[in-house]
Every structure is written in C-alpha cells, then in structure tokens.
UniProtKB/TrEMBL annotation:
It comes from the Eukaryota. The chain crosses the membrane at residues 21-45, 57-74, 95-118, 195-217, 238-258, 270-290. It is a multi-pass membrane protein. Residues 39-288 form the G-protein coupled receptors family 1 profile domain. It holds the Pfam family 7tm_4. This is Olfactory receptor. One of its GO terms (molecular function) is olfactory receptor activity. Odorant receptor. Coiled coil: none annotated. It comes from Castor canadensis (American beaver). PROSITE patterns: G_PROTEIN_RECEP_F1_1, G_PROTEIN_RECEP_F1_2. PANTHER family: OLFACTORY RECEPTOR. It is found in: Cell membrane. Its main location: membrane.
Amino acid sequence: MANFTTMTGFLLMGFPRKPELEILFGSFFLALYLVALTGNVLIIVATSMNHSLYTPMYFFLKHLSLLDLCYISVTVPRSICNSFMHSRYISLWECIMQCFAFTVCGSTEMAMLTIMSYDRYVAICLPLHYEAIMDARTCVCGVLAVWASGIISGVMHTAATFSIHFCGANVIHQFFCDASQILKLSCSNEYVSELGVAGFLSLMAFFCFISIGLTYIRIFSTVLRTPSSESRDRAFSTCLTHLCVVILFLSTGVFEFLKPHSESPSALDILLTVFYTVLPPTFNPIIYSLRNESMKAALRKIFQRRKDYFFC
C-alpha cells in the first residue's frame, strides 16, 4: 500500500502511447494553447490600455481573461511537454499543485461568471443606480471575494483528495491530475471525506447556476419591455455575449459530471475532458471580440498604433 508519504509520482495515461499520435495530440494542444494565449492577452491589453473600456463590465472581463489564461495553463503546457518528450510521469507535488490550481481556477471562473451576470443585471434593470452600486470599491471587493472563494475551494478539495491512502498502480487515466481519477486509486472507503467536499462544491456551483439563471430571467423580462428597439438590440448583444460564455463553460462541465465514469476512460471521455478544460479559455476571447463592438474598436486601435509605430 502506498500513501501520501511513500508515493513519489503518477503516470498520466490520457493519450495513446504511439509516438506519432503523441506528437499529433501535442501539436493540437499547442495550437489551441496559442490561440487561447493570444486571445486572452489581447483582451487584457485592450481593456487595460483603452480608457473607454474602464467600466465594471470590462474590468470583470479582464479578470476573466486572466483567469482563463491560468485555467488553460494549469493542464495544457505540461501535457504538451509530456507529448513531445514521450514522457508520462508527473511527481506527487506537481500533481498536488496541478489539482489545487485546477480546482481554484474552475471554482473562481464559476464565481466570476456569476458576478458578471449581476453586473449586467444592475446595468439593465437598475440603470439609474448602476454607478452607485457598481463603484470601483465594489468591483475590486467582488474580484477579491471571487478569488478567495476559489482558493478556499482549492485548499479543501486538494486536502481531502490527497489525505487518502493509495493502493495499487499509480496510473491516472487522464492527461492531467484529475481528482476523480485519483480517487479511483484510494483504498476501501477512505474517500468519503472527499465526497463530502465535492458535494459541497457542487452545491455552490449549483447555487451560482441558479443565480445566473434567475438573473437572466429578470434581465430578459426587462429588455423585452424596453420600448426602443435600438436599446433592446444593444442590451441583447451585450447579454448574449456573456450568456454564450456561461453556456460554454457550464455545458462542458455538466457533460463531464453526468457522463458515466469507467475504470479506463475511452477516447470519448478524454474528448469531453478537453471540452471543459481547453475549449472555454480558447473560445471565450473569440466570443467577446466577435460580438462586442467596443472590444473590436479597441483592438483595431491597438493594431493601428502598432502599425504606425513600425512604419515610422
């Protein structure tokens, strides 16, 4: 029997062991990572440099992009490195840190999307009180609270996961240290405490989901009563952008939660994991930049400024 004190590492067995397939998957992940890196960095730069975007909505969007960068950087770079080097080993402490960081980013993103929906609710349903409610202090405190909740969730989840004893082979059938796969290595029923933590975190995620749903019911009912078609279109455009991001993140996570878990995950299981770990950070910047006119204008200014600089 191996436990926290004697086990030195794990083997990540998410992808086929053929070298040519490892290179293919590594290249695919590298392409997605570069797209996510470029898109999120552009949003962070645009919202930081353009004074017209110094509003609560873009303040939260900047932190969402920063969070997406962290979220995809937790799992993908290590997977790319392992694929190109044909290595599957990850040390115990690296696995602990990866599990912790992944839980922090996932929990924080859920909370961030919730506070962003509240910002849209105040802007559309309480426009006269918007500046008073969503002032700079409230925005900063909101972001700090979101990150604090994620860190607390990460500490609870990681501590419960790695407090168990491990039996048998140290093989994780995933391309990163997935807590659900690590629990399959536990002895007898020692993972009961982890199930309690997972249940609590699931309850908090469900609360965020219900909050977002109720918020958008109020938003859409208010928008539909707006007499001006131009105001309705502008409100729908802003809200649908955020709603697309929420649906992308929640739907991929729900698929992973509801799908039947097997002892040895199939190619479909790995694909579903890619959906909720890689796709949201990759497509969030695309969704915001394509549907948001202010963001597109800010990005055009940045590229024009760079063009003028190079041709001076």
